[in-house]
Amino acid sequence: RVKNLHNTDVGYYQADLDELARQRRTMVVELSRAIESDQFELHYQVQKHVQTHEVVGYEALVRWRHPERGMVSPMEFIPLAEHSGLIVPLGEHVLRLACRQAAAWPRPYKVAVNVSPVQMLDDSLPRLIEQVLDETGLDPSRLEVEITESTLVADPEHTVRILKAVRSLGVSVALDDFGTGYSTLASLSLFPFDRIKLDKAFLSEIDRSPQAKAIVQAVLTIGKSLNIPVLAEGVEREDQMELLREEGCSEAQGYLLGRPAPTITIPDVVVPLRLVDRASA
Ligand code: C2E
Ligand code: MG
Ligand code: MG
Ligand code: MG
C-alpha cells in the first residue's frame, strides 16, 4: 500500500495513474506502428450552402482502424499524437491521402484538412503542402487548411508567417471551432481567414438559450463586417437550419446534412434537404 505524507491511503490513485501512464505508452507505440502499417483512413463530411443546399466541400476526418479495438476516434488519439510528436508524420499522411483522394473525385469540390498546432511549429509546412499538391495534381484552390485558435496563441508572428506562405500557394485557411478558445476575437484580427467555422457548442443550445442564439447572431454579424463566410458546425436538426437561413449564415455542416462517411457518394445533382420535422408533422 502506498501512503502519502499525511499517512492516508493513496494506493488506488497511484495504481490508476500507473495504469493510465502504461496505457498511454502502449498507445504511443501502437500509434507509431499504425503509421508505418497504414491503419488510418479518412471519412468525409459534407459542407453545404445554407440557402442553396449546394455542396461547398468535404472535411476529411481521420479514423484509426485499430487491429483489436476497431475504429478509434480522433478525440482519443490526436491529443496523444500531438504530445508524442507523431502528429507530424500522421498529419503528413492525412494531407497526402486527402489530396490524392480529392484529386480523383468526379467533381472538383473542396477538401478541408485539419492541421494541428504542433504541425504549425515547423517552418516546413508550406513546403510540404506545395510538394503534396504537386505530386497529387490537386488544384491548390481545392484545398482548405483548418486550424484552431490555440495555434495562433502559442506564437502569433510565426503562425501568421506560415499561414501567409500557405495562402500564397493558393490554398485557403479556415478558423476551426470558433468561439471556444481563449482569444477568439484576437485571432480574427491576426489573420484574414477565408472561413470561420462556428463551434458546434453554440448551435446545440440555440433553441433553448437566448444567449447562445445571440452569440450565433453576433458571430454572423462579425463575419459579415469582415466579409468572411461563416460555416456553422454541428447542425443536427431542421429548426437549427431554419434559423441559420433566417440569420443569413453562409454554410453549414452536421449530421442533418450528412454524417462523416468512409466513402463519399458525391451526388451528381444538388439534393434538396429532407425536411424532417415537416415530413413527420
Ligand atoms: P473538428 O475538426 O471540429 O471536426 C468536427 C467534428 O464534429 C467531427 O468529429 C465530426 O464527426 C463531428 N460532427 C460533425 N457533425 C456533427 C453533428 O451534427 N453533431 C455532433 N455532435 N458532432 C458532429 P470527429 O471526426 O470525431 O473529430 C474530432 C476532432 O478531431 C476534429 O474536430 C478535429 O479537431 C480532430 N481531427 C479529426 N481529424 C483530424 C486530422 O486529420 N488531423 C488533426 N490534427 N485533427 C483531426
Ligand atoms: Mg475541423
Ligand atoms: Mg470544428
Ligand atoms: Mg475540434
Automatic annotation (TrEMBL):
This is EAL domain-containing protein. It comes from Paradevosia tibetensis. The chain holds residues 401 to 681 of 681 of the full protein.
